[in-house]
Amino acid sequence: MTLAIRAIPYARDNYAWLLTDTQTGVVAIVDPGEAPPISAVIGEGRLDLILLTHHHADHIGGAETLRQQYGARMAGAEADAARLPPLDLLLHDEDRIAVGHELGEVIATPGHTRGHIAFCFRSVPALFCGDTLFSLGCGRLLEGSAEEMFASLRRFAGLPDETLVCCGHEYTAANATFALSHMSDNAALQKRAEEVRALRTQGQPTLPVTLGVERQTNPFLMAPDIETFAALRQAKDIF
Question: Which residues are catalytic?
Fold first, then answer.
């Protein structure tokens, strides 16, 4: 593995993800909602590529400033180009995008927004899933349907258990409370909830987490059918 990954927190609970190909030095950032925290980490270094999962302001707010500061190229879904900053690379489902020698796969994941995409680097392996999949949760259905989100989550089914889930928000503690209300006897979930409490008490992030852990603890990933998934999503919306 030559792709180094670093979470950069910003705002109240967002994460941008800094990717560095350690062989070539090429640097990318996923979902830079604010520029100053990213600039503080990069400093006088380089930023070659900005990867956008969806159009919400808390994920793209710093993108244009960073492009101007570092000369980075901007990449996002062509399907949502009208709501993203001007794109240098127009991406589609199953496209490949390079960060140095590392190739990422584009996965269309509508549900939270119509044009949402995720990036999967199988060599790590790591999944940058924006607001589609959270630890112990999933994104709200702001523009899509339960059917779309259920299908989007199923797109991750072929990824190995050791895949690192690198999502856009630190929602894990609240998600754990909801998950426990539905699966109180799940031993893996109980263990994960204790881990999350300890990490947050210490001011540490709960991410990334492996997809294998999520498959044992995340009620939305464990939902066997659309009806169950939709009922869970509706329950979470009013929890």
Answer: 54, 56, 58-59, 112, 131, 169
Query: CA 151, CA 110: separation in Å to the nearest integer?
Result: 9
- Domain 3-169, CATH among 3.60.15.10, 3.50.50.60, 1.20.1250.20, 3.10.450.50: 3.60.15.10
pLDDT digits (tens, 9 = 90+) for 162-188: 999 999 999 999 999 999 999 999 999
pTM over 0.85: yes
* Rounded percentage of the chain residues whose pLDDT exceeds 70: 100
Exposed/middle/buried for residue 49 (C-beta within 10 Å: 0-12, 13-18, 19+): buried
- For the stretch 38-90, pLDDT in tens is 999 999 999 999 999 999 999 999 999 999 999 999 999 999 999 999 999 99
Contact 108, 120 (CB under 8 A): no
**Rg (the chain; Cα; Å):** 17
Query: Cβ distance 6 to 29 under 8 Å?
Result: no
Q: Which of 52, 158, 146 is nearest to 106 (CA)?
A: 52
**H or E element that contains 119:** strand 117-121
Task: Evaluate whether 179 touches 189 at the Cβ level (below 8 Å).
Answer: yes
Element (H, E) at 7: strand 3-10
- Give CA angle at 64 (51, 205), nearest 5°: 50
Report in angstroms the alpha-carbon separations of 95 from 98, 103, 122, 154: 10, 10, 14, 18
